[in-house]
Write a structure and sequence with these properties.
CATH superfamily of chain A: Ribokinase
Family (chains A, B, C, D, E, F): Belongs to the carbohydrate kinase PfkB family.
Radius of gyration of chain A: 18 Å
Distance between the termini of chain A: 40 Å
InterPro entries (chains A, B, C, D, E, F): Carb_kinase_PfkB-like, KDG_KDGal_kin_Halo, PfkB_dom, Ribokinase-like
Number of strands of chain A: 13
GO molecular function, one term (chains A, B, C, D, E, F): kinase activity
CATH topology of chain A: UDP-N-acetylmuramoyl-L-alanine:D-glutamate ligase
Structural class of chain A: alpha/beta
Helix content of chain A: 25-40%
Oligomer: homohexamer
Protein name (chains A, B, C, D, E, F): 2-keto-3-deoxygluconate kinase
Number of domains of chain A: 1
Keywords (chains A, B, C, D, E, F): Kinase, Transferase
Chain lengths: 317, 317, 317, 317, 317, 317
Amino acid sequence: MTDLVTFGETMLRLSPPGDERVETADEYDVDVAGAESNVAVAAQRLGLDAAWLSKVPDSPVGRRVTSELRQHGVTVDVAESPDGRLGTYYLESGDVPRGNNVIYDRANAAVTTATPDELPTERVREATAFHTTGITPGLSETLFETTRDLLSLASEAGTTTTFDLNYRSKVWDPAEARAAVEALFPDVDVLFTAQRDAEHVLGRDGDAEAIARGLQAEFDFDVTVVTRGSEGALAAIDDEVYEQPTFEATDDHPVGTGDSFVGGFLSRFVDGADVPTSLEYGAATAALKRSIPGDIAVVTPGEVESVIDGATAAISR
Amino acid sequence: MTDLVTFGETMLRLSPPGDERVETADEYDVDVAGAESNVAVAAQRLGLDAAWLSKVPDSPVGRRVTSELRQHGVTVDVAESPDGRLGTYYLESGDVPRGNNVIYDRANAAVTTATPDELPTERVREATAFHTTGITPGLSETLFETTRDLLSLASEAGTTTTFDLNYRSKVWDPAEARAAVEALFPDVDVLFTAQRDAEHVLGRDGDAEAIARGLQAEFDFDVTVVTRGSEGALAAIDDEVYEQPTFEATDDHPVGTGDSFVGGFLSRFVDGADVPTSLEYGAATAALKRSIPGDIAVVTPGEVESVIDGATAAISR
Amino acid sequence: MTDLVTFGETMLRLSPPGDERVETADEYDVDVAGAESNVAVAAQRLGLDAAWLSKVPDSPVGRRVTSELRQHGVTVDVAESPDGRLGTYYLESGDVPRGNNVIYDRANAAVTTATPDELPTERVREATAFHTTGITPGLSETLFETTRDLLSLASEAGTTTTFDLNYRSKVWDPAEARAAVEALFPDVDVLFTAQRDAEHVLGRDGDAEAIARGLQAEFDFDVTVVTRGSEGALAAIDDEVYEQPTFEATDDHPVGTGDSFVGGFLSRFVDGADVPTSLEYGAATAALKRSIPGDIAVVTPGEVESVIDGATAAISR
Amino acid sequence: MTDLVTFGETMLRLSPPGDERVETADEYDVDVAGAESNVAVAAQRLGLDAAWLSKVPDSPVGRRVTSELRQHGVTVDVAESPDGRLGTYYLESGDVPRGNNVIYDRANAAVTTATPDELPTERVREATAFHTTGITPGLSETLFETTRDLLSLASEAGTTTTFDLNYRSKVWDPAEARAAVEALFPDVDVLFTAQRDAEHVLGRDGDAEAIARGLQAEFDFDVTVVTRGSEGALAAIDDEVYEQPTFEATDDHPVGTGDSFVGGFLSRFVDGADVPTSLEYGAATAALKRSIPGDIAVVTPGEVESVIDGATAAISR
Amino acid sequence: MTDLVTFGETMLRLSPPGDERVETADEYDVDVAGAESNVAVAAQRLGLDAAWLSKVPDSPVGRRVTSELRQHGVTVDVAESPDGRLGTYYLESGDVPRGNNVIYDRANAAVTTATPDELPTERVREATAFHTTGITPGLSETLFETTRDLLSLASEAGTTTTFDLNYRSKVWDPAEARAAVEALFPDVDVLFTAQRDAEHVLGRDGDAEAIARGLQAEFDFDVTVVTRGSEGALAAIDDEVYEQPTFEATDDHPVGTGDSFVGGFLSRFVDGADVPTSLEYGAATAALKRSIPGDIAVVTPGEVESVIDGATAAISR
Amino acid sequence: MTDLVTFGETMLRLSPPGDERVETADEYDVDVAGAESNVAVAAQRLGLDAAWLSKVPDSPVGRRVTSELRQHGVTVDVAESPDGRLGTYYLESGDVPRGNNVIYDRANAAVTTATPDELPTERVREATAFHTTGITPGLSETLFETTRDLLSLASEAGTTTTFDLNYRSKVWDPAEARAAVEALFPDVDVLFTAQRDAEHVLGRDGDAEAIARGLQAEFDFDVTVVTRGSEGALAAIDDEVYEQPTFEATDDHPVGTGDSFVGGFLSRFVDGADVPTSLEYGAATAALKRSIPGDIAVVTPGEVESVIDGATAAISR
């Protein structure tokens, strides 16, 4: 039995090395990037038995994704499509004032046609938890329906459902996103949302605590986690609200920070830990990710615990 | 006034360095690749004033293509699209028994929606020659129509029209291709075709000379050039047939050989040279290309002439 | 149940890029290399469910090996040691007259202390086949005993045992090797040996067929496969001898050719195919390997079948 | 008609990757670097039609420069010399306390023999503006004369002349530089100078405003721009003085900051914008440059405007 | 006659490029690293005639070390061993919160069997100074004895002996280290120790000055240098104590800072300079090292003096 | 006492990686290249105590050369010049029909002003042999005189003088070269010349043997070695002529083959071996060089002997 089953799109990420630009670079670094598979990798590396479900083209390009995920021990259980493409995105990074720029080329990916009957739904039913994000239902009408069906069957089977809102303005507009995700919320047990998405997409206001309590009340989540960038995160459960500051971390590799937070949180939460412990694990995993290139948190439990313990960064020899 | 105007799709080519595989490589080399722009670059570098018309996304990815083509002096005159993507292809190369493998990801490129009113058609009317290939009309219904219209208006304006059949089995099947290109042939003055495409797509048989004469007779081309891989090329004009063997060349970088042949041929032909001279220039340019990475013939007139003169490859110092 | 379980040492391979030298290079390419894991990867990629058993240090260096093997789908089931190191080897490659030079740094690797009680022996008992090589018992007295015990328990459990002689002159001398492997032969069902090792280590003479029949007779193997470098391979089974020529292949990446042959052979043989089919698959896998960097045959069934079918290496597009 | 014509030397810049040292590196990154061509590229990318005049050797090394500049859309109109070399410089960069070290190897470059009759002087006459720097007249007696003649004929033709003092202590001493540039000032309309050059070379004192007003008064410039490193810039025009602070920016890639400021300024000023707008554009372009490797500001108008608008550097997706 | 003779182990350092991880990188940068050879290189580059004695395998891997050290002008006088290996270490670097992680693979290096009769002891006798560190006697019983013998014969010959405590927790525990180094102290003239090692290994307490005076008193050193990381260093000599703050420096390349301090100090001290001058030189060399990749201070006297003079890091051109 | 002292120019060689072109590459590999230092390195690595005299700029660029030569153990004894540059050359390599193209940028190198009083002429007097080439006197009038003086003082001191004609058409024309080198011949004991240079520059005809005997007779050399590319070499000494065929070797890295031949020859000849032995060593060293990137023969005596023994290129493990 799998501890955590995830479902979603994973793309090839193409990025010019160092501070180079997409327009002028002669080579691109290749990484594997997907909100749900990022979570699966972090959770697997931190102790869970995690799986990733999706649909990919039956080609070397599709295998570029599946083999990298398997490398981290994640169980890859995907439909392989004779047609369709793999979504890609170009990431360009630079220091101030440039920042990070993402150019999506993800339309018509094979995954956008994935239906439940192509997927190993038994894995979802038998898992302890099922995770997906608000990106997936935005990618196609089919994927909205598949996401809804998977959440529903997980719910029926008693699998805990966790959902990261993860709004992407280059995928859809706030109104579309709100309608879609609110239609899914009845089958969601644990919600993760950035405070800015809660405001911008779900129309919430007030401080983070108010937002968490409001969502909790309206949608009856078991746990509602609100992240606030450099100001840390906060979780509402029953009548309690727990706060977790961020750990000090570089700005070198910010892409994937949020997924690493969720992966770290779930690695403890799905294993039965309480919410404060899970928050702390999530925050430490997110901090480590920021020092690691690519989308994926290549971390170990020992490293996460060192961050929590505040171990210094002196050379260990 | 431009000597040679070309029209077609140009893609990003992503290839693992050296003999690496797409599935396992951590970086891909980035090149710019398009049958018509390859021809434009070769012709420009060899002395013509060449232009490339197309439609690209208004993004760093689109500019990756336009800036590289401009680097070789080609006039880039493209519609920039707020939507749409740039086609890409993955190229994996290996020595025997692996060979070269191409994985296209070119559906829905911005260029597939290009219509004549978006393009600087005055350039076509005023040019000495207009060149496109049998790939372009295969990419979308719109592009078939645009190709037809551009050939037609070139024809009306007295611009010499040149066309490379360039059949791609991953784009369409032979019957579709035949119907489309034969519909375009009435406005074509100079045809380039590989012997295997003439057989497989156009249903021709006999030896290369018979094929050239047969096509000449049926479609009333001014010049019909039939290429035969390592066996060289042959051109029919009026009652004459000229043969041109290949020059000795490595197998290191074969992609783009055909386009370099056409570019080298046109660099002389459009400048008024006779067919045997043009064939020789084409064959020498093609030979040089095989020693140069990427899709593009980064050559000089002096180098082409050295190949024709049979200069030895000793170290020049 | 696993189809094929393998056991042995896997090292980090450090090699200067291109034709550079170990003495002067400023970076080394990193690959993962082990005779038995090479076989496991080839067999897994070609359709079997394969596992690799070993012992590695519990460190990022140990994980460098396990994560790369998992990437190809192999089940990695290893003891993790708090002490001990990972064996490494330096590989320097050059064209004629340099050739390939291997410098081992493998003494005292964690695996040299591996005992059966640290290993998942149930996997061996339940597998269809168990594979190891003549390198493993040469690495330490402990490993000789562990190899013997694993072959013995496999034999008792009815698991087919396969063994590649794989003599390494930098590990031990021929007399030591002969004594050790002949002590293991009673529990071996399928033997692979290079003709030169049969001569040099086992003291055989005559042509390859005579050698195969002689070994068969003396040690009562079910199948005896004798490889002859560029002259192909030959297998004796019952009263039959089958010959298999090599497929044409480059000399670019020869390291790992032999393991790829065994992996390809076993991918069919363990699946129930007859010996001629298995030989052909082995030879085609070996040919493909020679075009692929590293120790590992990153191949697909389709590619192996193309080599068997003699598909040409023209650009496929 | 060209908006902005520039004239000067462009060199190959050879720099060890990352923090490596010239003495020990095994490869050097290759960039194209010239004060005037840097300005032309920035201005072209930001909307002007810009040209660069110079003299380069007729060789692949010369073409290394011209093709990179053409890539950004700049019109390259150069004399090609059968003799002479291309100037190079070695750039070594390191963090504190190392800093950046430049080693010039620019003596006897082909450009040092460039005379007006080798250059397309009609372009200068017909342009809206002509730009050069105080480096050019320091490179040879011939170049001093050519610079003087081009400024003079621009002036006569009604072309606005702009001049960046750009003192280089490795080219000449302050007294030589002062005599030369003051001899050119009568034909200069817009002067750019660093405050430290105004002090050290032109013998000015007082604060930046006093310096600007003093130069304005003495040499009758239309506009006098004084830059003050991290303290921003200031421009005197008629009776007004405008100040422009710098935008926040990294120290990663400082080489080329000054040229980017001038290029950004001219992209608006030559297009008719007022001085405050031009200063702001210059400062934003300079800030962006500091995040981009090489000498050249690979920027877009949208990026410059984002900096001006103070858009945050969060990941845009 | 050599000014400074050093003795100790030098390893290959293997580190993933940039921020990559050992577990996932496909190439490792190769550097040469040894506490004593680092000192020899710094001292040689800063003006001494320095030598390094050791024992290395007679192989390309051994030559990887000796040729890099010779490159800096150091006299390499080593025993070459037909057996044995070269020690290696893996270094993984990352920004906060990751820090630097060292994984040693140094057991059984050829140097661990080095005895005085294999080494050119005449060099030690004839040198002005002899330097080794507290790492060397920790590597094997043989090396403890060899270190003791070399210090003893240096002492007898009137060669100044200098010793850097350099405690390594991955080599031995504090009690073992204390017993060993205290047994060597009678033959040591100049001691270098980090304050934390003095506390942790030698059981000292109080502030740095108290520690220096206490060690001085107990072991009768001529000079006792106590380093305090970012707080600078302090030296006791006779009745005087001199303090030296650190120079401002990046955290980019911290490995080797301590050895560079010692090398810079000795470059002046062995040449006859007083202690304050030597401290200043040491601190400036250490600061420069932090901006330079690898273990070795690739510096020049001019650069060290610029740091001392507080020259700004503006671009020098 | 040095066995072999050499004198000449050494340049930085800048070459695009792989098959890339100078015009389009974004990085150049950096190598150190000089006919005389190439000989010194080969001879040192093969057992002689060799030195290289020259004049280089006192800069990191100059040290780039001296540190790489020292790495191979060569004694570097050079004048360091505050002025002047280091010569460079661009090397572009490609397979057929491209070949190798050299673009020199060597005018005004610091070495062109080197006079005997700047050089350690005692080394020449005390050496067993002194070597230079026909490139050196072609670089400047001063260098012609210095070469003449060094040969003369070597001759007087009883040092064997060896001279490789090494005609460079990009340095001077055949008539100039002939006049210069014939003026030096009276002080030359051993001449190396390519057959084509003997014909083209010295006006010889007939076969290689006739040429060798003719030069021997006219200029009274002790030994006259004539090389014939792939046809091998031949040496005349007294009344004997010895022939040496080439060993089989790749065409991958041909630059430096001739210098490696001379270095290999001298490594034995200066050590007292007879001419046939020296020829064989030279030919084997030259063959190995062709498999090694850069200008320098990074070889060992064992490797040279393996080539002579015809050891196969199978993987040694």
